[in-house]
Design goal:
Chain lengths: 242, 247
């Protein structure tokens, strides 16, 4: 299968502290890849190094065979990104933010269709500031999908969403995956990981402590649930350090 | 180009919703020119002067908007957009953060030009003001003042580590410049000692340039201000290009 995201021996330090330590990731087209780990485990740093907004100390990164820093303009026609922290102008309205985002790309999906799909049609004239956190989260997923991307990066996909909204987002992402979309996401919800991810990478202090599919993760642990297995992976290594 | 147009429309709306530039760049210069017109209207600028007090003041008041936009509006919006990681978001699109900065420069230039039109209209209609010099030279000088003031703004916005420091620096630059460069308080009315201090401010030089152009004084008298303005622009632009922080 074609590899869309390829990360080899990625390392990154901040002020002498190793934030990402020799991480390898390979994501096949049309699959969903999950990065797991506690806050500060290095998930966002890895995503930023992949996207080229942070420069790695060593290692290689390519998306769709392109270098994210050298071929930025070409690459980001095909890649949608939702960052963890919301970045939008004060006093901007939902429709305006969508319209500006749409204008950045050559080919796009009609954002009105996306707003409808995510139940935000009536909010088009509302200030982004005034949306509930769940609505805002859905809006940022929409922004990542506007370029009709081949790959999307979703950092903390459904944080702040209620159960129904999370299910809706899952269903929509599953549908897009069937259409061939590749997704790289981070999440703290194990049910979400189980429902969506083909492969996962569990991080502990910047190191990969597990890499494979969800079943393998559970089988290689003494537990039967992913949540328990996940805690086992992350805590076992913590104990080793002590 | 389509991107630029849509972004300009949306950023302009956001800026107007912010209201502060309407007050500082549009309303304030109009108020100042009306006050100067009412108080000094037809009195000569000094004993035996061939022009009235209002004539040189017109050029000074016309720069208030440039000062407000360049050293207050522009640095604050740049530092705000960096702080909110809006510039970073543009890095993961086919567009670039430079685009949104260019849009901001155009917006503040529009404020300045709008203000110039209003101040001229008021001075003309209510106080019979006429620009005796060359409009061509005046507008050339106006653009030069915009260039050098905005380059200061981009420098401050690009280098200030956070929005708090940016707003301290902009206040330190804006208020002295507004008061002592002759934009509001007439330079001619200042004591000589103060004039010497005021001469350090780049806007003072810019206003001298505009006064000369609007009064039709010979261009040789303003070579020094022109050089100062250009030098300021070159220094600020090169430093910001070298050290600009996107995050």
């Amino acid at each position: 299968m074609e590899t869309t995201i390829n990360v080899k021996q990625l390392s990154k330090t901040y002020d002498g502290i190793l934030a990402v330590d020799n991480v390898n990731i390979s994501v096949a087209r049309g699959t969903v890849f999950g990065l797991l780990g506690a806050n500060g485990a290095g998930k966002s740093t890895i995503i930023e190094c992949i996207l080229g907004t942070k420069r790695q100390d060593s290692g290689e990164v390519s998306i769709l065979g392109m270098n994210p820093q050298r071929e930025r303009k070409k690459l980001f026609e095909k890649v949608g990104v939702q960052f963890q922290e919301a970045n939008y102008q004060e006093n901007i309205r939902v429709g305006e933010l969508c319209e500006v985002t749409e204008s950045l790309y050559k080919t796009t999906i009609d954002y009105k269709v996306l707003l409808k799909q995510f139940g935000l049609s009536e909010k088009s004239k509302s200030l982004v500031n005034e949306l509930s956190s769940g609505q805002r989260q859905r809006l940022f997923i929409i922004l990542a999908l506007i370029p009709n991307p081949e790959i999307v990066f979703l950092d903390e996909l459904t944080t702040g969403l209620d159960s129904k909204a999370r299910r809706d987002v899952w269903n929509f992402l599953s549908y897009l995956k069937k259409q061939g979309l590749t997704i790289l996401l981070t999440s703290h919800f194990m049910d979400e990981i189980e429902a969506l991810c083909d492969e996962i990478c569990i991080l502990k202090q910047g190191k990969t402590v597990f890499y494979g599919n969800v079943n393998e993760a559970i089988l290689a642990s003494p537990f039967e649930k992913l949540e328990d297995a996940y805690l086992w992976y992350t805590e076992e290594f913590e104990n080793e350090n002590i | 180009m389509k991107t630029f147009r849509i972004m300009l429309k949306s950023e302009l709306k956001l800026s107007l919703r912010g209201i502060d530039m309407i007050i500082f760049a549009i309303c304030m210069p109009i108020v100042v020119i009306i006050i100067i017109g009412i108080i000094y209207g037809d009195t000569p600028a000094f004993d035996g002067a061939e022009y009235t007090y209002l004539e040189p003041s017109f050029s000074a008041v016309a720069t208030i908007a440039i000062c407000a936009g360049g050293v207050m509006g522009l640095p604050l919006v740049i530092s705000d957009y960096r702080h909110k990681k809006i510039l970073k978001r543009f890095k993961v699109t086919p567009s670039s953060p430079l685009m949104i900065l260019a849009v901001q420069v155009v917006i503040y230039a529009l404020y300045s030009i709008t203000s110039l039109v209003f101040v001229y209209t008021v001075a003309r209609l209510f106080f019979g003001y006429q620009l005796n010099g060359s409009w061509f030279q005046f507008l050339g000088g106006y653009l030069l003042v915009i260039l050098s003031m905005f380059s200061i703004g981009v420098l401050v916005g690009g280098l200030a580590p956070n929005i708090k420091i940016a707003s301290v620096i902009t206040s330190v630059l804006y208020f002295p410049m507004l008061i002592f460069s002759g934009a509001t308080l007439p330079y001619e009315a200042m004591p000589t000692a103060l004039q010497k201090v005021a001469n350090i401010l780049p806007l003072t030089q810019g206003i001298k340039l505009l006064k000369a152009a609007s009064l039709g004084l010979p261009i040789e008298s303003v070579i020094f201000p022109i050089m100062v303005m250009i030098l300021f622009a070159i220094i600020c632009i090169s430093v910001s290009i070298r050290f600009f922080k996107w995050e």
